[in-house]
Design a protein that fits this description.
The chain is mainly beta and 278 residues long. It contains 4 helices and 17 strands.
Length: 278
Amino acid sequence: MTPGQAARPAHFTAVDGAFEPTRYAQSHWGPDHLNGPAVVGLAARALDLAHGSPDFMPARLTVDLFKAARGVPTTVTTRLVRDGRRVRNAECDVVQHGVTVARAIMVCYRRSAPPPGEQWQCTTEFAYPDGPLPGPDEFTGPYVGSDGLGWTRTIVEHQNAERTRFLDRPIDVVAGERNTPFVRAAMIAESTSLVTNVGTRGVGYINGDLTVGLARLPVDDWVGTQADSHWAADGIAVGTATLFDRQGPFGSGMVTAVANPAAQIDFGTTSFEGLRLQ
């Protein structure tokens, strides 16, 4: 571990085979809840370390968030479900006090040449904020944008009914260890919930899962999400978003969510000092 790595913010510290949440892992949903990127990042990291391979592309990650993860020592276990010539499947359990709080499935495909012919491709675009982004060791928080307003650094300005986008460099999952491109993509994809579920009164839906589909891995530390759709009925919502880096779109995120008005997050009335947005 270098001095620079030690000073970087992280969601967890590794202690005696477990992971201790830091203040950065705290969620806005409650004083003892962990945020989505922390849990998703921990599962993605474990799967990437145990079952990743340069020959295989991690094309899909699905994380089921069974119950609220708390600020307690957390462990992860992984298992290889199938190791085929072209497809590899692995699972991960995120466990607290002997109870599984989240389970993730990673599907990897062997990299190869594309088939012949041309296919339709969406022409959606993602405009980056003007000016240079913060440097590699400056973790100054995300950019939030919405149609008509553009980019700012404060989410409360985007509590509206416009299309929303999000750009961030996720902090490390585990202290002293840099995130891999796959882990970065998974963590930023969790903001699909934010960009699709935010409205004029903040966020009133809590997502119970996340599915990330990747055609390639991000080439930048900074990764963006942009809302594509949000459908809601009877207190149930589904949202989709496109993932971007400097080279353009490279994947999609999808979340399903349930209404949680009793714990509505109004960014204009809640203090978020020291916390990540999710």
